[in-house]
Each structure stands twice: as structure tokens, then as C-alpha cells.
Design goal:
It contains 17 helices and 15 strands. With 452 residues, the protein is an alpha/beta fold. The chain is globular and about 60 Å long.
């Protein structure tokens, strides 16, 4: 007849089992195999952009002809056009603006760089160009560095489980029956990156984490691929500060120029370049979200609602924007379709955000005479930030979570401690099923043999 194991032996056995289980669990948490890969998609101006001048470039001034100097360019002539602090100085602001200009060609129905200017986006696939807009001025140009550091703290590794998808943020997208070479190529590159990241991580579907304009790109990518592709490759979509319905601030940008608070820069020096941006046109207030009746811009001669944007563009002297707006932008934003993947929107609110602009008889070459401020994140109106909730809340196939953090601005959502904690919580929750699976593999419930 067998005797029962001594109490000390039982305690020791349980201790070994418990310790082994915890060690395996911690290894799983830190292991690449336990994490769904993450793709970071930045917002407008959220990554480095490089340029090169060809013999076809015709400088408007002697300064622009000489700038940038030899020391600022690599051996092939490429230099960082965004972001370079010299842009705040008026002579260089002019050079910057003329090189960042886009031109819409109604014959080919597409946008192109200024003649003689080539651009490229460095480090696609890595987070390198998303961390700081100027690597030499990290403290003044921090962008996604705090977010990336927080993800690395829970085990993510650049180019292995964590990837960046920078792009030329001046360009936008268009309906599928329109030519959109640069934007369409980016969507294909992003799709390829998603599939490659998944393959590199054992076929796990990815988490896409976007900021601002990047969320609109991701949304279009999801809508333009099949449900089976989304189910296979997309685990979760985390959208930070996404302007689902555009923003009233864009009307200020088009009317008078907007410097984002950068000192010394004169708005009119960059207005033409800002108007030329295809993505800026995409960010105009959407009529479906902002309605047909509330005036967004008020002048002595006319009021403009979201449905009046074509007339607004004409009246501010940018009639060349009317056709692409009507044919390329409106068809994309007439309905905010659900992507049918799990979505978490993290937004800020409680910060003064432009709601209505007033211009006096001096016209649009001056900044607004007064502004009515409303709720939002300082850049995007709360109405637009919450548009996904309003449109998708009754969609049965659309899991949706909205996290509203009071006092967090459009860009501080990437660095605020409370915001980062929420992002990490969501990422950890998404990964938790992998942790639970790992736990189940090491679950041990020994049955101790006893005798009567």
C-alpha cells in the first residue's frame, strides 16, 4: 500500500510548477511569437520627406538656386525637405513652398511634383523616419518616439514586430475610377508590408496603429480589399485623432494660409503650396458629417457651409481646386463605410478648436477677424472625431471602442502618459489571446496519487 507524499514534497512540487508556469508566461510576453505585429501609419507631416533637384528645376530666387548647400545633400543630391528648421526664415520659406507644390493635371487626372523636383520617403518598413522630424533636433521635433518607446517596453522590436509605413503626405487618394499614381502605390506598398509583417510573425494578423490622416488612408485600404483579406491579415485597427469628417481648420488653411503656430512664418508665403496639397483637399469638412446648414465661414458677402465648399474654393481664388474636389474627394467621403474589423478610436477633447471663421471686407489675404471656438482636440472638431461612432454604432459587424481623453491634443495623443497607457492597454488586450494560448500549453494540474 502506497503512502501519501510528504507535505514538504507537495509544496515543493507546486512551487516548481508555479515557477515554471510563470517563467514560461513571462517569456511568452517578451517573445516575438506572442505579439501581433504592429504597423504604424503617421499623420500629415508625420515623417521625414526627402527631395532632389534636377536640371529642370527653375529657382525663383538666387537663394533658392544656391539652397541647400553641398553639406546638406548626400552624394546623390538628396536632402531633407521636411522637416528642416530653415523653413521658418522667409527666404527659405519661399524655396520650401515652391518645391513642395503639387500640380493637378486635368488631362491625366492626377497630381504631380513641381517641375524639376523629385521626392522620396526614406526608411519605409522601419520606424526610423517617424521618431523625429529632424534627427538633429530631437527635443524640438519629436513625433512618434514616445509611442515607439512604449511599444518597445512591452517587447516590440523595430522591423521585426514593429513596422513604420511613412508616405508622401502631400498626396491623397481618389475613387477607383480615377488616376492616383502616388496614393495608389502607397496603398499597395502598405498592403505588401502588412502581408510581409504577418508572414514574418508566423502568419499572425497585424495591428494597424494610425495617427490623424493616416487613419483615412488605412480606412480606404480596408474598404478596397476583400472581407477575406481583412479577416486574414487585420487583427485590430487603432485610430488616433482620426479626422473622419475633415476639419474646419482646413478652410482657414485654404483661405488665408496656416502656419501651425510656427513663429516667423508668414501664412501667405505657404498658402499656395498648402492649397496645392491633395491631402489638404481631402481634409475639408465633409458635408455628410458637418451638415448642409451650419455656416463654417462667414463673410460680409456670403456664408459657406460644408456643402458650399466648391463655391468657397472659387471665391477664395482657388478655382482650380473645384474640379478635383467634386470628382475625386466628394465621392470618397459621401459615406463613412464600416471597415468590418475591430476598431478602437482614441481621441482628445476639451481643447478650443476652430468652429466658425469670420472674415471682414478686407478679404481672405488676411487672417480671420474673429473665430468661434468649439470642442475638439485643437485641430479636429469633436463632431469629426466621433463620426465613426455616429455612423457605425448600429453596424452589427463592426466592433468599435471609443476612448475620449479630456485635455489631450491632436498630437499630444502620441506622447501624453495617459494616452500612451490606453494605447498599450488596447495592444495588450489584443495580444492577450496569444498569452492565454501560451498559458494553456503550460497549464499543469497534477493529480497527486493518494491511498486510503
Amino acid at each position: 500500500m502506497k503512502s501519501s507524499p510528504p507535505l514538504f514534497t507537495l509544496k515543493f512540487l507546486y512551487y516548481v510548477i508555479f515557477t515554471t508556469k510563470m517563467m514560461l508566461h513571462m517569456l511568452c510576453l517578451a517573445s516575438n511569437s506572442a505579439l501581433h505585429p504592429i504597423i504604424l501609419v503617421p499623420g500629415s507631416g508625420g515623417n521625414i520627406l526627402e527631395a532632389r533637384l534636377t536640371p529642370n528645376y527653375k529657382a525663383s530666387t538666387l537663394i533658392c538656386k544656391l539652397y541647400p548647400g553641398r553639406l546638406q545633400k548626400d552624394k546623390d543630391g538628396w536632402y531633407r525637405i521636411w522637416f528642416d528648421p530653415s523653413v521658418v526664415l522667409a527666404p527659405y520659406t519661399k524655396c520650401f513652398a515652391e518645391r513642395m507644390m503639387l500640380y493637378y493635371d486635368p488631362v491625366s487626372d492626377d497630381y504631380f511634383n513641381a517641375p524639376g523636383v523629385e521626392t522620396r520617403v526614406p526608411h519605409f518598413g522601419s520606424t526610423q523616419s517617424l521618431l523625429y522630424l529632424d534627427p538633429n533636433l530631437k527635443s524640438l521635433s519629436t513625433y512618434m518616439a514616445p509611442l515607439v518607446e512604449s511599444l518597445e517596453e512591452i517587447g516590440y522590436i523595430d522591423s521585426k514586430t514593429l513596422f513604420g509605413a511613412p508616405y508622401d503626405f502631400r498626396y491623397g487618394l481618389a475613387p477607383e475610377n480615377h488616376t492616383c499614381h502616388t496614393g495608389s502605390k502607397y496603398l499597395q506598398d502598405l498592403k505588401d508590408l502588412i502581408e510581409n509583417a504577418s508572414a514574418l510573425n508566423g502568419g499572425k494578423p497585424v495591428i494597424i496603429l494610425s495617427h490623424s490622416l493616416g487613419g483615412l488612408y488605412v480606412h480606404q485600404l480596408l474598404l478596397r480589399n476583400t472581407p477575406s483579406w481583412r479577416q486574414k491579415f487585420i487583427k485590430h485597427f487603432i485610430a488616433l485623432s482620426t479626422p473622419w469628417g475633415g476639419t474646419v481648420q482646413e478652410m482657414l488653411t485654404f483661405a488665408s494660409g496656416y502656419t501651425l503656430g510656427v513663429p516667423l512664418v508668414k501664412p501667405l508665403l505657404i498658402r499656395e503650396e498648402q492649397r496645392s496639397s491633395e491631402s489638404n483637399l481631402w481634409l475639408m469638412p465633409c458635408p455628410k458629417i458637418f451638415g448642409h446648414f451650419k455656416p463654417l465661414v462667414i463673410t460680409p458677402n456670403a456664408n459657406y457651409t460644408a456643402k458650399d465648399i466648391p463655391k468657397f474654393l472659387d471665391d477664395i481664388g482657388f478655382s482650380q481646386g473645384v474640379h478635383p474636389y467634386r470628382t475625386r474627394i466628394l465621392p470618397m467621403v459621401d459615406r463613412l463605410r464600416a471597415p468590418e474589423v475591430p476598431v478602437t478610436c482614441i481621441i482628445g477633447s476639451g481643447i478650443d478648436t476652430i468652429e466658425t471663421l469670420f472674415y471682414d471686407a478686407k478679404g481672405f489675404d488676411k487672417q480671420p477677424s474673429s473665430i468661434i471656438w468649439g470642442d475638439g482636440d485643437g485641430t479636429v472638431n469633436l463632431l469629426s472625431l466621433l463620426a465613426a461612432q455616429a455612423e457605425w454604432m448600429n453596424e452589427s459587424n463592426q466592433p468599435l471602442e471609443i476612448i475620449n481623453i479630456k485635455g489631450v491634443s491632436h498630437t499630444s495623443v502620441l506622447s501624453d502618459r495617459g494616452s500612451l497607457d490606453q494605447i498599450i492597454r488596447v495592444v495588450s488586450d489584443v495580444n492577450s489571446h496569444s498569452f492565454e494560448l501560451a498559458n494553456s500549453l503550460v497549464e499543469m494540474k497534477p493529480e497527486l496519487e493518494t491511498t486510503k
